[in-house]
Design brief:
By secondary structure, the protein is α+β, with helices and mostly antiparallel strands. The protein has 3 helices and 11 strands; from the N terminus they run ααβββββββββββα. Helix content is 30%, strand content 23%.
């Protein structure tokens, strides 16, 4: 009988302890483990975002350019893409009448990341050459705009014509005197976002446009590549264009 009562008391004590829940020490250990795991996940996500940020921005810019090109061909009007450093945005504008500056219509605007996060324009000093297009394609020129939509802003202007060609901003608000040119727009992230230097980069991409054909191409800079100049056509490496050349599709090359 005594043995029975003893076992009963032990059972009741265990039941009471279970009802009381975790002890303070157990809770502290659990919270510590959760904090460590959360910190590790946050660090990993932050590093991954840095690797993919340049690709995301480059593909966004290309998307706007492709829309401009398609609209220019189907609507038979000049479409203007402005990469505006003053607004920190990229805009797609329908020029409508080629002789009137005041009838321009904004079709699309996409905000760009802060320049401390993504550099858009000139290439890092560590990179010697632009991507190897068949003909030399100079770095995109940012200059004061004379268009009403961006007057006196620092802008890179790329205009898609109904003929399929690409021209520059020209020399007045209607784009008169425009030249049939190509350009290379660099998009890259710094190794150290706090640095003011343009030398050290983490990931570098470039967008080339060819004036005569209207083609748009994305390039990846791969320091480990055996290709001359280290620039690889992204249609062959997988992040843009849908197929790979011995790599993992969609994986950025740092």
């Amino acid at each position: 009988m005594m043995e029975y009562l003893g076992m009963k008391n032990i059972g009741q004590r265990i039941e009471r302890e279970q009802e009381m829940g975790f002890s303070i020490i157990e809770l502290l250990i659990t919270l510590t483990i959760i904090s460590i795991m959360s910190g590790a996940v946050a660090f990993y996500l932050n590093s991954t975002q840095k690797l993919y940020k340049a690709d995301d921005v480059a593909l966004t810019i290309i998307d706007v350019m492709q829309e401009a090109r398609q609209r220019s061909l189907t609507q038979r009007e000049t479409m203007r893409v402005e990469i505006d450093r003053t607004k920190n945005a990229i805009e797609l504008i329908d020029e409508n009448s080629p002789t009137t500056a005041t009838d321009d219509v904004l079709i699309r605007r996409v905000s760009l990341p802060d320049p401390s996060v993504i550099t858009i324009g000139e290439k890092p000093l560590e990179i010697a050459n632009n991507p190897p297009e068949p003909f030399p394609v100079p770095t995109t020129n940012f200059k004061l705009s004379s268009y009403p939509t961006s007057n006196a802003h620092q802008v890179a202007t790329i205009r898609f014509q109904s003929s399929g060609a690409i021209v520059d901003a020209g020399n007045n608000p209607t784009g008169a005197g425009a030249l049939n040119v190509g350009s290379t727009l660099h998009v890259w992230t710094k190794s150290d976002p706090q640095s003011q230097s343009t030398e050290s980069f983490l990931v570098a991409r470039a967008i080339t446009t060819i004036g005569t054909t209207g083609s748009i191409r994305l390039w990846e800079f791969n320091p480990k590549s055996d290709v001359s100049g280290k620039w690889e056509d992204s249609r062959l490496t997988g992040s843009y264009g849908g197929h790979t050349n011995g790599g993992t599709a969609g994986s950025p090359t740092p």
